[in-house]
Amino acid sequence: MNNKILIAYFSCSGNTRAAAERIAQATGGDLYEIKPQEPYTAADLNWHDRSSRSSVEMRDPASRPAIAGPQPDLRPYETLFIGFPVWWYIAPTIINTFLESSDISGKHIIPFATSGGSSIDNCVKHLQAAYPTADWSAGRLLNGASTEQIARWVHNSACRPDNQP
User: Fold this and answer.
1) DSSP letters along the chain, please?
2) Contact between 95 and 23 (Cβ < 8 Å)
3) What is the pLDDT along the chain (165 residues), one digit of tens a residue?
4) Which residues pair with residue 62 across a beta bridge?
5) 118: closest CA among 164, 84, 87?
6) What φ, ψ does residue 5 adopt, rounded to 5°?
7) Distance between CA 29 and CA 14 in Å, rounded?
8) CA dihedral (72, 74, 78, 80) positive or negative
9) Of 7, 25, 5, whose CA–CA distance to 78 is shortest?
10) Which of 20, 53, 90, 151 is deepest in the core (most CB within 10 A)?
11) CA 96 to centroid of chain Cα atoms
């Protein structure tokens, strides 16, 4: 690959982190972990509890959890892989915080996710609608994907903007 690549990811359980690390290995891109300023506890992530932090954030479309530490300068990157667990059929609101931190106009953005049972399709649809100036690929759910599967997907994503096999 000949363009500068950033793999930015948010992970609570480590599943999305593992996928991000495999993408970085396949692309040689830079890794950036999107860490919340206030780390999530197990109680915060209890989606069965309507008063848990994650439940409250996901019901509020304006929620923008703060990110810890400095964020990367996105200007040098042409391609951004953005990873997250699927929460309530969409990307966690901290992903919006990250995307709104810089100008992503014209960036090729390739979303990837992990999920206990949801598809990535609705996530991508919402992100495309919220950030229409970026060049979005279809994205991929990477639950349990092998290093070889991820490498093949990364190659196809980089070579084909619509990300379709």
Assistant:
1) --S-EEEEE--SSSHHHHHHHHHHHHH-PEEEE--BSSPPPTTTT-TT-TTSHHHHHHH-TT--PPBPSPPP--TT-SEEEEEEE-BTTB--HHHHHHHTTS--TT-EEEEEEE-SS--SHHHHHHHHHH-TTSEE---EE-TT--HHHHHHHHHHHHH-TT---
2) no
3) 447 999 999 999 999 999 999 999 999 999 999 999 999 999 999 988 999 999 999 999 999 999 999 999 999 999 999 999 999 899 999 999 999 999 999 999 999 999 988 899 999 999 999 999 999 998 999 998 999 999 999 988 765 444 433
4) none
5) 87
6) -120, 135
7) 19
8) positive
9) 5
10) 20
11) 10
Place of tokens 């209890």: 46
**Tokens linked to 154:** 């990364």
